[in-house]
Amino acid sequence: MTDENRVVDNPDEDRYELWAGEKLAGIAQYSLRGDLTVFTHTEIDDAFSGQGLGKVLAAGALDDVVAHGRTIVPVCPFIAGYLKKHPGYEDHVRWPRE
Questions:
Q1: Any idea where the N-acetyltransferase domain is (predicted)?
Q2: DSSP state of 52
Q3: 94 CB-near residues (< 8 Å, 6+ apart)
Q4: 70: nearest Cα among 5, 11, 12, 26
Q5: CA–CA separation, 52 and 38 (whole Å)
């Protein structure tokens, strides 16, 4: 993540936001259930596609959830795919039932 790209939690909107400079580049929508953070949808604005920003958003959001001692539930296919490719989160994930 560069100084221009930042991931911030926006609890009023139930989402993590990826900002590229002053522009909203993507979101990772979630819902809170007890100590669980359930990721439901992730998207990157078309204007920012192909720049690897989805990975920046996922890493920032997941690292924040872990830092707050919460458990990740990856309902969103993008977040689930990221978790499968990036080790280190296993102790903080509860996989949804299929």
A1: 8-94
A2: S
A3: 36, 71, 72, 73
A4: 11
A5: 23
Percent of the chain having pLDDT more than 70?
A: 96
Q: Strands of 5-10's sheet, edge to edge?
A: 5-10, 15-20, 23-33, 36-44, 71-74
CA dist 14 to 6, 22, 85, 97, Å? 17, 20, 25, 22
**Domains in the chain, CATH or no CATH each:** 5-92 (3.40.630.30)
The answer to whether 17 and 11 are in contact (CB under 8 A) is: no
Query: Which tens digits make up the pLDDT trace of 80-91?
Result: 999 999 999 999
Q: Report the DSSP pairing between strands 36-44 and 71-74.
A: parallel
